[in-house]
Amino acid sequence: MIGQSLGSVYLAWEALNKFTPQFYFDTSGYAFTYPLARLFGCKVICYTHYPTISSDMVERVKQRSSMYNNDSRIAGSIWLSRCKILYYSIFSWLYGLVGSCAHLVMVNSSWTRSHIENIWRIPERTRRVYPPCDTSALQMLPLERSTTPPILISVAQFRPEKAHGLQLEAFAIALKKLSPEFPKPKLQFVGSCRNKEDLERLQKLKDRSTELHIDELVEFHKDISYRDLVQLLGGAVAGLHSMTDEHFGISVVEYMAAGAIPIAHRSAGPMMDIVLDEDGQQTGFLASEKEEYAEAIVKVLRMPEAERHEMATAARKRAQRFSEHRFHEDFTDAVRPILSAT
Q1: Rounded to 5°, angle at Cα 66 from 65 and 69
Q2: Which domain holds residue 119?
Q3: 104-107 and 261-265 beta bridge pairing
């Protein structure tokens, strides 16, 4: 992380020498360039999607938990874990120092804001501005779901942090909870593969579905068009999301806009910003363990159509809070003071 940060400073130095703007606007998370931009006399504005380092990342290393930011080899070694904690502590202090140089900080969620305020310590200059989610095509889909069997959908790249395996385990448990006469639901995975590792991960998911004896009820769709994705979402009764601490969760917003009841991970963006009541009406479910996911799946499948329609209507209304129009309004309100002060 330190190497990448220093590289960004060199890149910014080259750019600022060729042209020095009045406003330096960063949307890529290169906080180490902010002090340099201020030295060049720029007003520094940033839109931060995800903190480069957070207290959650440090805590996982302290607990020696093997996750996407902590290799199992490091987690299994006391000395390597201690070295990484020291490295993270130094980097976190530096990150807080450079981040505090921003004149205006916009963040994409309440979770990101809490971490940025904790590290950069400039809450008076920090504003939450939800990202623009273009769900216009999804908002046009009918809320009625007459598909038989009922369809569950999971939309996410086949990356390790997305925890698709948890969804398979939960689906298998849910199937056992349904009565024999209940129509067997299907689970559709929709995602893309960036590299060989993602392809291998996809194959492992297929193998796991066979091991669980549910392969006939699980479908995998790789690298499909957006039009096909919209069609699949239009037939789903529920959408699964299982990434821990996803800073926002656009896929969850897409489920809600499409009329699919979201079953999302109880953390970060989905918990703090998205799957909240709308006008006193529940908009979806939150879970963290496979048993909780299975219970939520069964609830949605057994839900009377009128009740499901009511929840889907509330969820669709909530999804409108994250529209492109709302982003434009909030973004304009945030930058107006700093622009008008010049």
Answers
A1: 105
A2: 2-131+325-340
A3: unpaired
- Residues 227-265: tens digit of each pLDDT: 999 999 999 999 999 999 999 999 999 999 999 999 999
Whether residue 166 sits in one domain with residue 95: no
pLDDT score of 286? 98
Q: Quick one: 9 and 120 in the same domain?
A: yes
Given pLDDT bands bounded at 50, 70 and 90, which one contains residue 71?
low
> Do 205 and 124 sit in the same domain of this protein?
no
Closest CA to 306 of 184, 144, 157, 170: 144
- Do 306 and 333 lie in one domain? The reply is no
Q: Are residues 312 and 163 in the same domain?
A: yes
Residues in the chain: 342
We report the CATH number of the domain holding residue 205 as 3.40.50.2000
Q: Is the same domain home to 106 and 143?
A: no
Choose the weakest-confidence range: 30-34, 41-45, 53-57, 276-280. Answer: 53-57
Nearest to 206, CA basis, from 197, 195, 217: 217
- 155 vs 240: CA distance, rounded Å: 8
Average pLDDT, integer, range 11-40: 96
- Which residue type is seen at 57? M
Query: Which of helix, strand or coil describes residue 128?
Result: strand
Compute the distance between CA of residue 129 and CA of residue 126 in angstroms, rounded to an integer. Answer: 10
**pLDDT tens by residue, 112-151:** 999 999 999 999 999 999 999 999 999 999 999 876 889 9
Average pLDDT over every residue of 152-161 = 93
Q: Which residue has the tokens 């939309």?
A: 155
Question: Which residue(s) pair with 45 in the sheet?
Answer: 25, 104
